[in-house]
Write a structure and sequence with these properties.
The chain is α+β, with helices and mostly antiparallel strands and about 160 residues long. It is rod-shaped, with a radius of gyration of 27 Å.
């Protein structure tokens, strides 16, 4: 039986490996792979085929609505009238909201990612007998595995 598990790159991974070895699992039956972090920057704009779930226009649309109402209200007093000032307010609000979201994504979130120092995840594969699967699985869960899966291998 093979047991697959994922861990964060912490000391708990080393503790899990040493406890597995103490319980009789050989070093040759434990395989650990460190996943590499993404090197290139994420794309800022989505394409038709690929979307990351982050909207760039949500704040812009909200501010465009608010500024267009304010612009149209003030436009009754000004020379060009409420329609033009409503459109000017909507354009200015959208541009302001878009720039705010751009700064949030490019500067603030990038700084937070660098401060966290996010390490890659680690995949561990353990080969063991069918009788030891529950014991190995409990050891992995006790040492904060992110996920565990069992696959029955052919005899």
């Amino acid at each position: 039986m093979q047991i697959f598990s994922t861990f964060e790159h912490t000391i708990y991974l080393e503790l899990a490996i040493s406890e597995l070895e103490q319980k009789g699992i050989q070093k040759e039956d434990i395989f650990v792979v460190l996943l590499e972090n993404r090197v290139e920057e994420r794309r800022l704009f989505d394409t038709l085929d690929r979307a990351d779930g982050i909207s760039m226009i949500d704040i812009g649309m909200a501010l465009a609505t608010a500024f267009s109402v304010i612009g149209a209200s003030i436009g009754f007093i000004l020379t060009w009238g409420p329609i033009f000032w409503g459109l000017i307010g909507a354009s200015g609000g959208f541009l302001l909201g878009f720039l705010i979201k751009l700064v949030i994504l490019k500067v603030i979130r990038k700084r937070q990612r660098l401060l966290k120092g996010k390490q890659g995840e680690v995949i561990m594969i353990v080969d063991c007998d069918d009788s030891r699967t529950d014991q190995v699985e409990n050891i992995l869960w006790d040492h904060f595995a992110l996920g565990v899966a069992k696959i029955k291998t052919r005899p």
